[in-house]
Amino acid sequence: MHDLIKIAVDAMGGDGSPKKIIDGIIHNHKHNKENFFRIFGKKNIIENDLNSKIDKKFYEVIDTENAVKSTDSPLEAAKRGKDTSMWLAIESVKKKDSDIVISAGNTGALLVISKLNLKMIENIDKPALSALWPNKKGMSVVLDLGANIECSAKNLVDFSIMGASLYKSLYPQENPNVALLNIGSEELKGNETIKETFQLMNNKKSDSYNFAGYIEGNEIMNGDVNVIVSDGFTGNVALKTAEGTANFITSELKHALSGSIIGKLSSLLNISNLRKFKKRLDPRLYNGAIFIGLDAPVVKSHGGTDYFGFSNSIDVCNKIVKGNLIKKINENIE
Questions:
Q1: Is residue 41 part of a domain?
Q2: Are the C-beta atoms of 331 and 134 separated by less than 8 Å?
Q3: Cβ(38)–Cβ(98) under 8 Å?
Q4: Which of 74, 153, 154, 299 has the most CB atoms at less than 10 Å from its CB?
Q5: d(Cα 51, Cα 55) in Å, to the nearest integer?
Q6: Cis ω for the linkage preceding 158 (within 30 of 0)
Q7: Residue 291: which of 144, 76, 91, 149 has the closest Cα?
Q8: Which residue has the higher pLDDT, 113 or 244?
Q9: CATH of the domain at 197
Q10: Closest C-alpha among 319, 282, 274 to residue 299
Q11: Quick one: average pLDDT of 156-181?
Q12: Chain mean pLDDT for the chain
């Protein structure tokens, strides 16, 4: 157990919990025996769902009476008490009993309770919410996705360093290209904060990433840039637009291929290619936003995902701990 990665799991957050969470843990454990799960939630239900599917040396269940509700405001969630599964899971990381925490619960509550329990990494002013996005060549890290509506140039430089460190933790062999999300690629485009950030990053030499200047929204999926940086307002709009577009394409394609006889026939002929296409856009494969900037990593699984999506978030937890994310950020922040 000493060599295992210790993951604190809030089992009561998100739709269909705790069953979905436990099914995700069981599914993940089938292909990865490197994790020890410290599971917080209603013990009798959880142990009934686990039902000898995982050897007891790979988990323990901490019985919690209360849970943060999806309808709670961040303040209500914090006031709900220190006996909720979310609070105790985060506290487990604070006490160094666990290496990382994951929850599919209320996002606002998770950010606030994490901030209350965990310290900021030295010299970082604001934590950021980041996520993985697919591109033509692999994956990109995008941040901030909504934790900070307004950002200074220093914040954006910090996000660049944190995003590059996250990418390097997940893909150790690669040196990421970092770019600032903007309304044009010319130096004169954008607001004053973006221009100031560009100057700061252009003058800053780094061994951990290459600065690639500006990137426009229509270039995010090209794969030439691995880390895309913006304030939380812009990042959140970009994320929701990309998600909506992906959903629109898959639903329209499904409709077109199931409507007429010709459509059904062409879908049968192209079934292999369609499966590959659908898999490429499957949001469950990219599930797991990462809250970075605190002295321990916090992973947010989408509340509406299924057990397969939650299992993929556990893989993200595993890679982050193995990749020494916090150590990398500390080394790169001045």
A1: yes
A2: no
A3: yes
A4: 299
A5: 10
A6: no
A7: 144
A8: 113
A9: 3.40.718.10
A10: 319
A11: 93
A12: 87
Cα separation, 93 vs 203, in Å, equals 37
Domain endpoint, select from 264, 284, 304: 284
Calpha distance 311→308 (Å, rounded) = 5
Q: Which two tokens stand for residue 83?
A: 């006996």
52 domain residue, yes or no: yes
Average pLDDT over residues 89-100: 96
Chain position carrying tokens 């996000």 = 159
Nearest to 9 by CA among 80, 117, 70, 93: 93
Contact 190, 183 (CB under 8 A): yes
pLDDT band at 274 (very low <50, low <70, confident <90, very high): low
Separation between Cα atoms, residue 146 and residue 139, nearest integer Å: 20
**Mean of pLDDT values over 18-25:** 94
Kindly report the backbone phi and psi dihedral angles of residue 263, in degrees, each rounded to the nearest multiple of 5, phi listed first: -60, -45
Structure tokens given for 219? 């270039």
279 band by pLDDT with thresholds 50, 70 and 90: low
Helix (H) or strand (E) holding 215: strand 210-215
Closest CA to 72 of 109, 102, 104: 109
Asked if residue 215 and residue 278 are part of one domain, the reply reads yes
pLDDT for residue 272? 63
Name the nearest CA neighbour of 294 among 158, 181, 196: 158
The C-alpha atoms of residue 96 and residue 117 are separated, in whole angstroms, by 12
Can you tell me the distance from the alpha carbon of 49 to that of 45, in angstroms, rounded to the nearest whole number? 6
* Secondary structure class of 59 (helix, strand, coil): strand
Segment 18-27 shows an average pLDDT of: 94
Per the structure, the count of domains in the chain is: 2
**Edge-to-edge strand ranges of the sheet holding 298-300:** 59-63, 35-41, 5-10, 100-103, 298-300, 289-292, 128-135, 138-143, 227-229, 177-181, 210-215
Interstrand relation of 128-135 and 289-292 (parallel, antiparallel or unpaired): antiparallel
